[in-house]
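#structure-requests
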Amino acid sequence: MKLLSRMINFFKDPHGKKIQGLKSHYQELDELSDIAVKMGDSSAYKSLQAEMREVFFDYLTASVVDSIYRLVPHILLIWLVSIFIPTIKIPLINWQVNIFALYFLAYFTYYIGGWVLKYVKSFINSRKNPNSVVPS
């Protein structure tokens, strides 16, 4: 059970700390680069820009790998479900829908529904409390 829990946590956010560290390091280098421009130190600016490029590419690589790790459970789930149920027939209109398309439709519906629900809740709370602002 602990192994399953560790696997789920790993797939949930495998490189989150590394990405946040690289992002904060990039922001620090950007601020130092702005200071170097204000001081007129071109050699410091060039070296900071070179280091910023390295940090940016490390950040980009970690983000891509993190995205791939986030996709793996979905790909495995689609593959397992498609072995047993390759297509689903919609009864009223007699259409056959691939399980792959249905899975992604359900996935996007879940997230869009969450955003809509969050907006509706904030709208209802703003009606109860007229001093709050509705997010846009």
